[in-house]
Amino acid sequence: MPYPMQLGFQDATSPIMEELMYFHDHTLMIVFLISSLVLYIIILMLTTKLTHTSTMDAQEVETVWTILPAVILILIALPSLRILYMMDEIYNPYLTVKAMGHQWYWSYEYTDYENLMFDSYMIPTKDLSPGQLRLLEVDNRIVLPMELPIRMLVSSEDVLHAWTMPSLGLKADAIPGRLNQITLTSSRPGVFYGQCSEICGSNHSFMPIVLEMASLKYFEKWSSMMQ
């Protein structure tokens, strides 16, 4: 979960988020090298008198500054496309969960079960118990088994919303009349927090998401109690 004055990402909880963090570091290193080169050239031009005002043509230089940016873009695009296709792959999901956005709460339906569906509202600040988080706790958490592929279907009943779980590297737009699909896999148990990430009205800040990843045995016990 996030903490005050945090600058970096939340701790990765899924293979996808780990890949996204590696890609972020990879891209940031390329940006750092380019910025250093540009800064060096600017300083060199300001501190020396090495100018070539009479140069009208330089094919070699033009070739370099055409090919080099193309190579850099390829080095960024290839790992990006790899992660993009990884995020879209779903092979034999253990479970399918449908998340519907409303103004201003989420409803969930476990489509593999007949009567497993519920609404998830934020707990008002005045009703919080000691240790609970303001603007992040809900009355009904999503509970899912860890280390198993889960398919999330995301849509909306009214306006645009976005189902977001930063520690798992997930964000899906909830669009009325359309189903978006994402893959969810957690590598460890825990309770993870997210929020709607699309401006959806006056109470946009008050529709958090709480996801509890647990063992398969615990999930089966919970699902039987909820039905």
UniProtKB/TrEMBL annotation:
CC annotations in GO: mitochondrial inner membrane
Localization in the cell: Mitochondrion inner membrane
Keywords: Copper, Electron transport, Magnesium, Membrane, Metal-binding, Mitochondrion, Mitochondrion inner membrane, Respiratory chain, Translocase, Transmembrane, Transmembrane helix, Transport
Cofactor binding mode and count: Binds a copper A center.
Gene Ontology molecular function, alphabetical: copper ion binding; cytochrome-c oxidase activity; oxidoreductase activity
Annotated transmembrane regions: 27-46, 66-85
Segments forming domain Cytochrome oxidase subunit II transmembrane region profile: 1-91
Keyword presence, Signal: no
Tagged with keyword rRNA-binding: no
Catalysis performed (reactions): 4 Fe(II)-[cytochrome c] + O2 + 8 H(+)(in) = 4 Fe(III)-[cytochrome c] + 2 H2O + 4 H(+)(out)
InterPro entries: CcO_II, CcO_II-like_C, CcO_II_C, Copper_CuA, Cupredoxin, Cyt_c_oxidase_su2, Cyt_c_oxidase_su2_TM_dom, Cyt_c_oxidase_su2_TM_sf
Main location, first listed in the record: mitochondrion
Gene Ontology biological-process entries: ATP synthesis coupled electron transport
Membrane topology, record value: Multi-pass membrane protein
Cofactor: Cu cation
Record-annotated Cytochrome oxidase subunit II copper A binding domain positions: 92-225
Short name of any one Pfam family annotated for the protein: COX2_TM
Family assignment from sequence similarity: Belongs to the cytochrome c oxidase subunit 2 family.
Function: Component of the cytochrome c oxidase, the last enzyme in the mitochondrial electron transport chain which drives oxidative phosphorylation. The respiratory chain contains 3 multisubunit complexes succinate dehydrogenase (complex II, CII), ubiquinol-cytochrome c oxidoreductase (cytochrome b-c1 complex, complex III, CIII) and cytochrome c oxidase (complex IV, CIV), that cooperate to transfer electrons derived from NADH and succinate to molecular oxygen, creating an electrochemical gradient over the inner membrane that drives transmembrane transport and the ATP synthase.
Name this polypeptide is given: Cytochrome c oxidase subunit 2
Organism: Didelphis marsupialis
